[in-house]
Design a protein that fits this description.
alpha/beta; Conserved hypothetical protein from pyrococcus furiosus pfu- 392566-001, ParB domain; 18 helices; 16 strands
């Protein structure tokens, strides 16, 4: 290794990450005055300083004109390092590009001997070399932020190439999550986003995770309810349980086109989505009121909670859904993610009140379990005028009358003496209409059921978590009513 004397005035200091310590420079200058320079500085062939900033500064402090130097033929690497470093500091790169630049920057620094290598210890470490903290400081990041961005290079190269030209490359948290997945899962998520099948990261992660998942069936609890729900009573609260059933229901519920934002609270920071029935409520109702092999109907399929839960409990299912997107998505999940034969279920696209596909049938249903839409656009699922959610009260009541006329024909008879019950279960609520007060769906359904000779058999009140409570307290007090936090689960039978 040849050491040459290089004029200090010819040396170019174009790249450094550390601000030299005055105390350290003075200490080195004192040492040089006493014993001379022990380690030469390192330059590239264009006389760019690679290592030895403190030593060079100490020589300048001492008024020296030249300094012992080792010349390395590394101009090309140094030039690329300068370009990479400059790009990182321009703040024009997306997160994927930043990650790729960080990794390449470290590779170049390793090659030039600027960073610590694996195996360095207290005897081999040098103040001239750079730590991870120094690397992060050099581009204006904390150590944690630096390591998070570097982690993005664990994303499959093909996936990075596809996403880097899209807005998805700006979502750091989601990219970090993506980097922890397998290559196959990363490609699945990427394809779901790029094809437009999913419009959000959350939806894509969820769908990719459950791509090959099958919800298996489970046996009836046989009256052993206490451990899971406590004692069945007229007032019940169902907590959120993160199990396979909920995860499968969420494949439909989390679809970008179906989980529409209803409103927001907390000055717009907390988004309120359209209500989803808790799968625990459906699980309880179907397990409590029905038996294996029963044919369960849902005239307002929505996002498929009843269909999925019924098949999970080894019931058969028939349903109706007017929204083509919800119809298609439910069929997709039932076909791909629920372990049930195709002949165990059928979902029609059309009006669940008219039920034209079943107009020639009678007494075929063992149970009905459904949660019909509110009226007057209280929750707007779509713009179809034939959907109950878009109807006024008169139109709504006419449709419910048609609904019960058809249910009365289709439901099997119950027998009090034989203890066989074929329940018609609806989860209903109330909504407010300004000066018109409360619009009570319970009343509408009770009157229609009585008209068609159905017997009102059971009621359960389901406690809800209402996100509007806190911001509505003052308004409610001024208007003289309390905040609704329940729905009613009503049961009829036909004797």
């Amino acid at each position: 290794m040849q050491i040459v004397e290089t004029p200090i005035s010819d040396i170019k200091v174009r790249f450094r990450l550390r601000t030299p310590s005055e105390e350290k420079v003075q200490e080195i200058a004192d040492s040089i005055s006493q014993v001379g320079l022990i380690n030469a500085v390192t330059l590239d062939s264009d006389l760019n300083l690679i290592a030895g900033w403190h030593r060079l500064t100490a020589f300048k402090l001492l008024g020296k004109q030249t300094i012992p130097s080792i010349i390395k033929d590394s101009s090309a690497e140094f030039a690329e390092l300068m370009e990479v470093d400059e790009n990182l500091k321009r703040n024009e790169l997306n997160h994927i590009e930043v990650a790729e630049h960080i990794v390449r920057r470290e590779e170049l620094m390793d090659s030039l001997g600027l960073t610590y290598q694996q195996g360095d210890n207290a005897h081999t470490r040098s103040d001239e070399k750079l730590t991870v903290q120094d690397l992060a400081d050099g581009i204006g990041l904390s150590k944690r932020s630096y390591q998070q961005r570097k982690q993005l290079c664990r994303i499959n190269e093909e996936v990075r190439s596809i996403l880097t030209e899209t807005p998805y490359a700006e979502n750091l948290v989601d990219l970090i999550k993506l980097s922890s997945l397998s290559d196959e899962m990363q490609l699945d998520v990427c394809n779901l986003l790029i094809t437009g099948e999913c419009r959000s990261w959350a939806s894509a992660f969820y769908k990719a995770q459950y791509k090959n998942f099958k919800l298996t069936t489970k046996p009836r609890l046989d009256f052993n309810f206490k451990e899971r729900w406590g004692y069945p009573q007229s007032i019940m609260k169902f907590n959120r349980v993160h199990d396979d059933l909920r995860n499968t229901c969420n494949l439909v519920n989390n679809d970008d086109e179906l989980r529409v934002q209803k409103s927001s609270v907390n000055f717009g920071r907390t988004k309120i989505k359209l209500h989803q029935m808790n799968p625990e409520q459906a699980l309880f109702a179907l397990d409590y009121y029905t038996r294996e092999g029963d044919l369960v109907a849902d005239m307002f399929n929505g996002r498929g909670t009843t269909a999925i839960t019924a098949l999970h409990l080894q019931r058969r299912f028939v349903g109706f859904e007017i929204n083509p997107t919800a119809h298609k998505k439910t069929i997709e999940v039932l076909s791909n993610n629920v372990d049930a034969d195709q002949d165990q279920w059928h979902l029609y696209q059309g009006c669940g009140c008219e039920m034209k596909e079943l107009e020639s049938e009678s007494e075929i249903l063992d149970a009905v379990f459904s949660s019909p839409p509110y009226l007057n656009n209280a929750e707007k699922y779509n713009s179809d005028p034939n959907d109950l959610c878009n109807m006024n009260q008169d139109q709504y009541e006419e449709k419910i009358d048609v609904l019960f006329k058809n249910i009365s024909r289709l439901i099997k008879r119950s027998s009090y003496e034989n203890r066989t019950f074929k329940p018609i279960i609806f989860t209903l609520g109330t909504t407010r209409d300004g000066q018109n007060g409360i619009l009570d769906l319970e009343l509408v359904f009770k009157l229609a059921a009585r008209k068609h000779n159905l017997t009102y058999w059971d009621t359960m009140f389901v406690e809800l978590n209402n996100p509007y409570l806190a911001p509505s307290l003052q308004r409610n007090y001024e208007l003289g009513f309390v905040q609704k936090n329940y729905e009613s689960q009503l049961v009829w039978v036909k004797f």
